[in-house]
């Protein structure tokens, strides 16, 4: 018991220390590397709170995909950074910094007070939520809540991903619109990376499908599976085996939109048949949910891959 | 039989921990990138291999070897500055 407390305390100190270090880092690249490590530590913390789903998502999306986007951004910004170090240019005045310290300290103290001095157990709907899960054919409470109870939130998350992708695409110059994302990577690169890009994807695809399937009963699901698929695709692109597809290709557009579209279609069917938008008929709830999750996984994988690939920079 | 298994576990995991410790000390103390990579990969290889003997280890070997190659090549191209 005391050993576990010791390990937890060490983890908390590591997370806090790393956060401070990231803020103190004067250049973008080391800060991004620190942020990736920070995401992995946070995933460990979630795991210690027995929230396996959140831990997997944090590691895959928060640390992995976001880290890749940030690394690409910091490499692009490197030239500007060496010209004039902007971060050290004008530090905010001392009163401003003290005020920020005071305000954030107040918020932290208020939150700590709320947690420490409320009497009685916290209000919770957990029991009622778990009660109805068998009717949906779901053993994993988190997946059940995401897909069934909070379906609208999940749908909106997917639409937000789609919007983010459109935002990135809209950064393309006019003549490259509809072209291939990023600079061409097909060139003789590192043999070791090419070997990895040939060996790993078969394993990764099997793991991703397994995680999607097991998401009904254990930690896992569409987002985690999709992130692993996207990682495999990115590995192939980084190794220079395949370029990213031109964004005007019909299959790209189809893959990107089919997930949210299927979700909306199922939701509208629920409007006509049982009792409202995004509710599932009891008898076929499980197959329906699995079908929606599979299509969503495909969409998430393609969207995440294209998010990292960036705006089009070659003519179609 | 249980006892033999337990003793083997303790011995192997302790040995693995020694390698991790040595790898970490090497990472902190060695003078340049190439030698630090050397220390890290030793910890991955033997340390993790002695602690877990499963598919995870094989995957780590694969990823570790590739990343080491990439970092070493980047250091080489950068003119050997660490």
In short:
The complex is a heterodimer of chains A (316) and B (82). With 316 residues, chain A is mainly alpha-helical.
What features would you describe in this structure?
The complex is a heterodimer of chains A (316) and B (82). In chain A, strands 1-2 form a two-stranded antiparallel ribbon. Chain A folds into two domains: 1-79, no CATH class; 134-316, no CATH class. With 316 residues, chain A is an all-alpha fold. Chain A has helices at 2-24, 28-48, 52-83, 94-117, 126-131, 133-136, 141-149, 151-169, 191-214, 222-238, 250-272, 285-309, and strands at residues 180-181, 312-314. Chain B is mainly α and 82 residues long. The model of chain B has no long low-confidence stretch (mean pLDDT 82). Chain A binds chain B through residues 190, 192-193, 195-196, 199-200, 203, and chain B through 59, 62-63, 65-66, 69-70, 73.
**Into which percent range does the helicity of residues of chain A fall?**
over 70%
Number of helices of chain B: 3
CA-CA gap between termini of chain B? 50 Å
Number of strands of chain B: 0
Q: In angstroms, what is the radius of gyration of chain A?
A: 23 Å
Q: Any idea what the radius of gyration of chain B is?
A: 15 Å
Strand content of chain B: under 5%
Largest sheet of chain A: 2 strands, antiparallel
**Which descriptor suits the 3D outline of chain B?**
elongated
In the predicted model, the low-confidence regions of chain B spanning at least 5 consecutive residues are none
- Spatial arrangement of strands, main beta sheet of chain A: 1-2
Give the terminus-to-terminus CA distance of chain A.
60 Å
**Largest sheet entry of chain B:** none
Order of helices and strands of chain B: HHH
Unreliable runs of chain A: none
- Give me the secondary-structure category of chain A: mainly alpha
Summarize model confidence as the mean pLDDT of chain A: 82
- Summed up, the domain count of chain A is 2
Counting DSSP H or I runs of 4 or more residues, the number of helices of chain A is: 12
């Amino acid at each position: 018991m005391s050993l576990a407390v010791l390990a937890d305390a060490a983890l908390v100190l590591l997370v806090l220390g790393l956060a401070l270090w990231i803020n103190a880092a004067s250049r973008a690249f080391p800060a991004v590397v620190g942020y990736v490590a920070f995401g992995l530590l946070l995933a460990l913390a979630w795991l210690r709170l027995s929230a396996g789903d959140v831990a997997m998502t944090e590691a895959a999306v928060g640390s992995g995909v976001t880290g890749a986007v940030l690394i690409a951004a910091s490499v692009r910004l490197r030239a500007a950074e060496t010209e004039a170090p902007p971060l050290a240019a004008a530090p905010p005045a001392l009163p401003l910094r003290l005020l920020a310290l005071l305000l954030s300290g107040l918020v932290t103290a208020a939150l700590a007070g709320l947690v420490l001095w409320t009497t009685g157990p916290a209000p919770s709907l957990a029991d009622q939520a778990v009660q109805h899960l068998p009717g949906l054919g779901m053993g994993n409470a988190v997946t059940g809540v995401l897909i069934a109870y909070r379906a609208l939130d999940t749908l909106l998350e997917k639409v937000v991903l789609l919007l983010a992708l459109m935002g990135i695409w809209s950064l393309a110059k006019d003549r490259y619109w509809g072209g291939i994302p990023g600079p061409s990577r097909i060139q003789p690169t590192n043999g070791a990376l090419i070997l990895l890009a040939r060996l790993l994807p078969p394993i990764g695809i099997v793991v991703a499908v397994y995680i999607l399937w097991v998401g009904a009963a254990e930690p896992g699901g569409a987002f985690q599976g999709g992130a692993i698929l996207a990682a495999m695709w990115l590995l192939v692109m980084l190794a220079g085996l395949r370029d990213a597809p031109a964004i005007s290709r019909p299959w790209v557009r189809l893959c990107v939109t089919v997930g949210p579209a299927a979700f909306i279609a199922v939701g509208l069917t629920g409007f006509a048949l049982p009792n409202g938008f995004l509710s599932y008929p009891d008898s076929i709830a499980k197959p329906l949910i699995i079908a929606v999750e599979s299509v969503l996984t495909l969409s998430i994988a393609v969207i995440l891959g294209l998010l990292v690939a960036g705006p089009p920079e070659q003519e179609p | 039989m249980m006892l033999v298994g337990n003793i083997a576990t303790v011995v192997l995991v302790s040995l693995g921990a020694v390698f991790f410790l040595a790898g970490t000390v090497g990472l902190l103390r060695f003078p340049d990138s190439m030698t630090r990579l050397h220390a890290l990969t030793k910890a991955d290889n033997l340390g993790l291999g002695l602690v877990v003997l499963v598919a995870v280890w094989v995957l780590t070997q694969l990823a570790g070897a590739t990343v080491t190659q990439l970092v070493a090549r980047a250091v080489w191209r950068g003119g050997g500055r660490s």
